[in-house]
User: Which sequence fits this backbone?
C-alpha cells in the first residue's frame, strides 16, 4: 500500500472555477457534425436536424463552451458556404481531412444548436487561406444588430437577433506544417495582430485568442509563443495551447503521468507570456485558452487520411474514432485536475472533440448514442466543481517514467464553494498495480459529511464501452472513504480516478 497526504485551506485560493473550463470542440471532421450532432433523418432529430439523443448526452456531459468549426478544417473554410437556403449551399473539398464538405450545417445552425443547449460558442477564423476582410465580414454577419448588408442577410436567413459571438480564435495551429496556409511565427503574429486590432474597431470587448503551439513537442515551442505575443500582446486576451496524449508501446506508467507533462506545458506558456509582458513593460496578463486537449491514439491514425487516394473524397467518413478505455478515462480525469489547478491562468479549455471524433459521445447513423469511458470524469467534474480552486499541498511518493521523468504517484485538487457549503476532492492514483491511501487534512474546511464519493477503476484498465455494452466502464460508488474530525481517508485503487464531495455545512 502506498500513502500520500494533502492539506488545503479555504483562504488559499488559486482562482475561481471557470465555467469555460468545461468546453468542448465541434469540427467539420469525420462524423463529429454529420451523424454526430446533426442527422436530420435520425428518429430523435428535431425540426432543425439536431439529434435529440446526442443533445441529451451533451447536456449530461455539462459542456459549457464549444469551439467551432475547426481545427485544421477552418484553415480552408469559407464561412459563406454554410449560410442561406440549404439547397443552394456548395459542396467543397476539405483539404485538411481529404473529404467533401456538404455545408448543410453552418454557423447559423451552430448558433441555434448552442442556444438550445445553453452553450457559449467559441468561433475560429480562417487565417490559412483567408484574412482580414473575411474575418470582418464574418464578424459583421454574426454580431452586428441590423441595418448593414451582412447583418440584414443574417436576418433574411431567419436570424434577426445577432449571434453575439464573444470569443474568437485567430486561426488554428498556424505553427503546424500540416496546416493549410501554415506560416512562420513572425508572419502569423503580424497577421493575427492586424486582424485582432481591426476586429476591436468593430467591437472593443471581443475576447481574442492568438494561436500558441500545437503541442509542447513542436520544434518551435517557446520561441513561437514569444514571437507571436510580441506582435499581438496589446491586441489579444488569450494564447492557445493544444495537447494530445496516448499510451505508447505498452508504457502505461508514462501514459498515466500525462497530466504532469500538461502541468509543465501550462507553466511554460504562462512564463513565456509573462516574459514578453515584462519585456514590453505591459502589466496585462495573457490568459491561457487550452482549446484542444484529450487522449488521442494519433500513431494509429496517421495512415488513415494519408492513405486515401487523390480521387477519394468521402463525405463524413469514420476517421479517428478512438475507443477509450478505463486508463484513458483516468488520464482525462487527471488532465481536468491539471486544468483546475491552473485556474489562475487557464480560463477556457475545450476537450477535442465532442462526438465520434476522439470523443466522449459515440453515435451510430440511424442508431443509438452512448458514453465512452472518458465521458464520466468530465461529466462528474463539470457538475461538481464549483466556487474556488484551492491550493492543494500534496505529499506523494514518486515513480520514474520513460517519457516524463519522475512524477508523483498521486495527484489531486480541491474545489470549495463557500456559498453552497460544499467541497470536492478529485484524486488519481497513477500506480499500475498498488492501491494508495490518501489522507487529507481538511479541518479548515470543516467538512461535515461525505455527500457522494465516486470512483472510476476497472480490474482491466483496457476495458472499453461499446454500442452493445455501453456501460462497461462507468463511475461506481467509492468504498473505503472515511471522514473523521475533518480528516478524510480515501483508498484509491490502482489506475483510478476518484471524486469525493463533502458537505461543509451541517
Ligand atoms: O482535433 C483534431 C485535430 O487536432 C484538429 O483539427 C487540429 O487542430 C489538431 O491537430
Assistant:
Amino acid at each position: 500500500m502506498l500513502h500520500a497526504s494533502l492539506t488545503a485551506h479555504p483562504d488559499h485560493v488559486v482562482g475561481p472555477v471557470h465555467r469555460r473550463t468545461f468546453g468542448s470542440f465541434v469540427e467539420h471532421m469525420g462524423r463529429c457534425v454529420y451523424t454526430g450532432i446533426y442527422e436530420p433523418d435520425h428518429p430523435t432529430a428535431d425540426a432543425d436536424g439536431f439529434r435529440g439523443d446526442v443533445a441529451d448526452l451533451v447536456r449530461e456531459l455539462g459542456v459549457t463552451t464549444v469551439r467551432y468549426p475547426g481545427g485544421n478544417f477552418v484553415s480552408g473554410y469559407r464561412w459563406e458556404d454554410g449560410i442561406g437556403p440549404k439547397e443552394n449551399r456548395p459542396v467543397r473539398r476539405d483539404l485538411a481531412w481529404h473529404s467533401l464538405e456538404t455545408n448543410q450545417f453552418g454557423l447559423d445552425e451552430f448558433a441555434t444548436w448552442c442556444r438550445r443547449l445553453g452553450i457559449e460558442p467559441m468561433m475560429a477564423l480562417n487565417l490559412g487561406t483567408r484574412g482580414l476582410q473575411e474575418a470582418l465580414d464574418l464578424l459583421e454577419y454574426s454580431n452586428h444588430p441590423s441595418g448593414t448588408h451582412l447583418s440584414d442577410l443574417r436576418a433574411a436567413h431567419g436570424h434577426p437577433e445577432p449571434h453575439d459571438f464573444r470569443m474568437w480564435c485567430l486561426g488554428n495551429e498556424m505553427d503546424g506544417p500540416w496546416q493549410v496556409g501554415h506560416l512562420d511565427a513572425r508572419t502569423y503574429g503580424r497577421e493575427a495582430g492586424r486582424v485582432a486590432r481591426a476586429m476591436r474597431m468593430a467591437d472593443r470587448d471581443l475576447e481574442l485568442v492568438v494561436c500558441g503551439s500545437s503541442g509542447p513537442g513542436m520544434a518551435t515551442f517557446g520561441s513561437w509563443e514569444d514571437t507571436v505575443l510580441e506582435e499581438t500582446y496589446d491586441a489579444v486576451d488569450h494564447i492557445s495551447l493544444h495537447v494530445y496524449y496516448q499510451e505508447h508501446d505498452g508504457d502505461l506508467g508514462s501514459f498515466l503521468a500525462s497530466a504532469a507533462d500538461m502541468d509543465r506545458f501550462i507553466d511554460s506558456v504562462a512564463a513565456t507570456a509573462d516574459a514578453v509582458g515584462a519585456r514590453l513593460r505591459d502589466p496585462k496578463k495573457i490568459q491561457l485558452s487550452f482549446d484542444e486537449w484529450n487522449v488521442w491514439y494519433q500513431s494509429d491514425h496517421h495512415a488513415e487520411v494519408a492513405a486515401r487516394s487523390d480521387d477519394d473524397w468521402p463525405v463524413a467518413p469514420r476517421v479517428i474514432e478512438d475507443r477509450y478505455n478505463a486508463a484513458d478515462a483516468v488520464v482525462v480525469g487527471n488532465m481536468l485536475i491539471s486544468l483546475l489547478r491552473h485556474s489562475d491562468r487557464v480560463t477556457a479549455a475545450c476537450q477535442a472533440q465532442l462526438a465520434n471524433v476522439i470523443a466522449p459521445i459515440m453515435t451510430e447513423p440511424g442508431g443509438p448514442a452512448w458514453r465512452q469511458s472518458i465521458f464520466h470524469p468530465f461529466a462528474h467534474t463539470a457538475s461538481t466543481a464549483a466556487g474556488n480552486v484551492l491550493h492543494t499541498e500534496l505529499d506523494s511518493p514518486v515513480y520514474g517514467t520513460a517519457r516524463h521523468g519522475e512524477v508523483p504517484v498521486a495527484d489531486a485538487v480541491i474545489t470549495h464553494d463557500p456559498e453552497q457549503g460544499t467541497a470536492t476532492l478529485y484524486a488519481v492514483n497513477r500506480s499500475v498495480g498498488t492501491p494508495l491511501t490518501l489522507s487529507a487534512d481538511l479541518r479548515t474546511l470543516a467538512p461535515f459529511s461525505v455527500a457522494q464519493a465516486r470512483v472510476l477503476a476497472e480490474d482491466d484498465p483496457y476495458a472499453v464501452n461499446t454500442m452493445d455494452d455501453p456501460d462497461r466502464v462507468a463511475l461506481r460508488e467509492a468504498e473505503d472513504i472515511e471522514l473523521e474530525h475533518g480528516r478524510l481517508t480515501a483508498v484509491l485503487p490502482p489506475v483510478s480516478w476518484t471524486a469525493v464531495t463533502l458537505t461543509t455545512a451541517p
User: Anything to note?
Assistant: The chain has two domains: 2-10+388-503, 18-384. The mean pLDDT is 97.
